[in-house]
Amino acid sequence: MHISEGVLSAPVLIAGGVLSICCVTAGLRKLEYEKVPQVAVLTSAFFVASLIHVPVGPSSTHLILNGLTGILLGWAAFPAILTALTLQAVFFQFGGFTSLGVNTFNMAFPALVSFWLFSIFVSKNNRRITMFAGFIGGAAGVLGACFLVAVSLLTSGKAFLPLVKLLAAVHLPVILIEGLITALALGFLQKVKPELLDRRI
Fold this sequence. Notes:
The protein is mainly alpha-helical. Helix content is 69%, strand content 4%. It has a two-stranded antiparallel sheet with strand order 1-2.
């Protein structure tokens, strides 16, 4: 769901950059030292999931795992996603450096919203509720990212309206798949590493 360079208007790029800087700073301040390995693992998962992508105009469709990242990391999802997107831009030219701020905010803010809304239902005591919250949180992460990408494109020009409709259509199956993956991942963690579900950033 990366937006390529040269697509967005300067005000959108500046706004995305400023918002991302503020949120990444907040995420780093809240990051506890003992949580760094967990952040690194989820950064890697986000990085790998986004590698298999299908170009759709100046954007793309692929797995994101931002809902899972947000539920487990909270504010630390911002530096985690920024790191992954930076590495993708450097090694694979996905997105770009001028659009890095917008792309980071578009993917990390829905992750944070998933944390705010659904992490309270994730615990080591009730697997069914945990998996249901994971499904909704994972789906909501992608849905939120789609919405912010649409806002970014439409704010840059009404000519992007057909592309926004296409992006919404191709991401419908991704939303369901992400929800399922997040539910299964949280269910697995509850079984093998339940302490990860109790102490989130």
